Amino acid sequence: MLQSKKFVDLLDAPFGRRGSFFSFANDNNGEDLYGKCNLWLCTTRTQMASDFSAPNGFRQIKFELVHDGKVWPAVIDTTPYEVALRCNFGEVRFTIAERGLVLAKGTDGLTLRLTTGGSGGGGGVFFALPSGMDQMDDIGSRLVRFGTFKVLLLPLKGKLVSMGRTFDLTPDANGELLLGFEEWLRDPTRRPTSEYPSYEQGLANVKADFDDFAARICPKLPAKYEPHRLTSLWQTWNMTVDPDGESDYKHTMVKMIHCIFEGAFVWQQPMQAVWLSNDIRHAWSVFASSFDQMDQNGRIVDSLLYRAQPSDGLKPPVHGAALLWLLKNRDLSAIPVEEKLEVWDRLALWTNYWIKFRDVDKDGVVEFQNIIETGWEDSPAYNVGFPNASPELNAFLALCEEALAEFGRSIGKDESVCAEWESKSKALIAKIPQKFWDGERWFAYNPETGARSDSKTVALYCALILGKRLPQEILDKSIAWMFSDDGLDTPFGIASEAPTSPYFRHGFTAGSVITPAQFLIVLALEECGRSDLAKKVALGYCDALAKYGYFHIYNALTGKEDRSLTAFGERGLFWSAWASSCFFWFASKYGE
Questions:
Q1: C-alpha–C-alpha distance, residues 406 and 283, integer Å
Q2: pLDDT digits 0-9 by tens, 121-134
Q3: Dihedral sign for Cα atoms in the order 52, 55, 57, 58
Q4: Where are the domains of the chain?
Q5: What pLDDT does residue 135 have?
Q6: By C-alpha distance, which of 320, 478, 306, 283 is closest to 401?
Q7: Under a CB-based contact definition with an 8 Å cutoff, are residues 494 and 525 in contact?
Q8: Which long-range contacts (CB under 8 A, 24 or more apart) does 79-85 make?
């Protein structure tokens, strides 16, 4: 019986490439077993839906292998550059040759069958193209719906036969076939057949792109983690999008999770910039992307999908903490001054937004206005209601103010402006212990009712990212509790809610081990002078990811991945670029 040969399992990570909105996936309910899998070509130009239980049409074209008129069971193979559908009689290989072009090649005399129309939802509605419109050209290409857009089926070698929603590409006299899938958002303007790349050219293009990315970002890892280096880098590369003249992306960004969390979430970009900073030009583009979709008040779009959609969502302003890290640990001299000035201006707008619009009682301390803004969507730290003043939000804001002062001086901003930002930062830092520390623990509170949270939540302890700017007694007590039997420490990283808490429930941020908690706490521990504990947390998390994959949520008690969060009819989360980038950064920094 055939066994799959996989670089990645498509049940864990749909297969794409940097800059492309194509991907490949297994059946939603499939298995990685001979005869129990189906290969689909998918569109990642999805939008967040109001009904998270409905299929979103992610899977659009199903592939099957036909021999002697019969569909044969198959397995799915993957390398970093290709996907293959393989049966007992041969295989057809696929590569994303260009951002908007997939090529499929077969040399074994097999017929490739395509069933179009998607796996459900909007992708199955065909309106003007009920069976694929014949383009009446020299090769018999067909235009079919692909989600809300279109794909040209290009039989570059072999014959394409239409059977309604199903198409067969039969091989030529030499048993070979070559089929292109070219994405179009509106009306196609097909290039001459001779101008399409060969399969080998497309494969070489993919290989050069990924290999270059891997060499620039993380050329090696310590021996223990080296076997996982390429998969982690591939996942981040796979989720990277670039400006292309069609989308609303203005800089390079990194999306989160294919299908369910398809967007590039703005508070993740500063974290990605730190992790990608071995290539500082690449990292700077990712950092600058945070501010591309900003209104006149300085409010930024929380999540950027293919198109920007203004929403009520925000996320914590972690941008200052990331920028301070870059200033301290990386040489920014290669970044043009005009780019730095633009980022400074926009960071100032973003910081002032919080000051102006998120301080309802005008006491100089800012608050969240709803649970989405916190970044910890089911955390019990905020169960006292909103508005909600919390220590970590104000710590992040204080570091934005400090970054404006320090970064401003490095790019020639007037000293009076920098000194004013520095003064604001110090004043806010002085208020944080007064407002949020009761002598033993951190808490959040509702300024309207005065109610204080009584949870044991990691988000509150992210205030330690201020490090030595806080009194030493607070640092000592906070760290002692976090790593006590009653605290947040687990063998797999830091839990989002202490297992001893009455609110612990294995939730998204109510007890699981999640990526932002690990990264922010590791940064905080470094700022507190506890590199030993930072290393302990980082390597515990790395070990879990190395064992189970780059999932965003891990069970704090078992260390196993938790895929229970679902949407769009999917059975669980796929690998996350948030986790994969954090992995190779942690492993590189702490793995020896």
A1: 19
A2: 434 444 444 557 77
A3: positive
A4: 22-206, 218-590
A5: 77
A6: 320
A7: no
A8: 79/7, 80/7, 80/207, 80/210, 80/230, 80/234, 81/203, 81/206, 81/207, 81/210, 82/203, 82/206, 83/10, 83/15, 83/24, 83/39, 85/39
For 428-464, b where at least 16 C-beta lie within 10 A, e where not — what string?
bbeebbebbbeeebbbbbbbeeeeebbbbbbbbbbbb
Confidence (pLDDT) at 127: 44
- Reported for 417-425, long-range contacts at CB under 8 A and 24+ positions apart, including other chains, are 421/348, 425/398, 425/399, 425/401
**What is the identity of the amino acid at 371?**
I
The CA-atom distances, in angstroms, between 63 and each of 58, 75, 535 are 15, 12, 46
CA nearest to 290, candidates 315, 312, 311, 309: 315
Residues of the chain below pLDDT 50: 48-50, 120-129
Q: Given the DSSP bridges, would you call strands 101-106 and 177-184 parallel, antiparallel or unpaired?
A: antiparallel
* Secondary structure (DSSP) of 249-301: --S-EE--BTTTB-SEETTHHHHHHHHTTTSHHHHHHHHHGGGSSB-TTS-B-
- Is 106:90 a contact under the CB 8 Å cutoff? yes
| Number of Cβ atoms within 10 Å of the Cβ of 124 | 16
| Predicted local confidence at residue 51, as pLDDT | 55
Taking 3-state DSSP, the helix, strand and coil percentages for the chain, each rounded to the nearest 5, stand at: 35, 20, 45
Share of the chain above pLDDT 70, in %: 96
Instruction: Yes or no: say if 330 and 280 are a contact pair by the CB < 8 Å rule.
Output: yes
Nearest to 457 by CA among 353, 379, 533, 391: 379
**In this predicted structure, what is the pLDDT of residue 508?**
87
Q: How far from the centroid of its chain's Cα atoms is residue 33's Cα?
A: 28
Amino acid found at 331: D
Cβ distance 131 to 162 under 8 Å?
yes
Q: What six digits make up the tokens of 222?
A: 């310590």
Burial state string for 345-372 with b = 16 or more CB within 10 A and e = fewer than 16: ebbbbbbebbbeebbeeeeebbbbbebe
Could you tell me where the DSSP H helices lie in 383-498? 391-410, 415-436, 458-461, 472-482
Sign of the four-CA dihedral 587, 590, 591, 592: positive
Return the sign of the alpha-carbon dihedral for residues 392, 397, 401, 406: positive
Which overall architecture, per CATH, does domain 218-590 show? Alpha/alpha barrel (1.50)
**Average pLDDT over the chain, rounded to whole?**
94
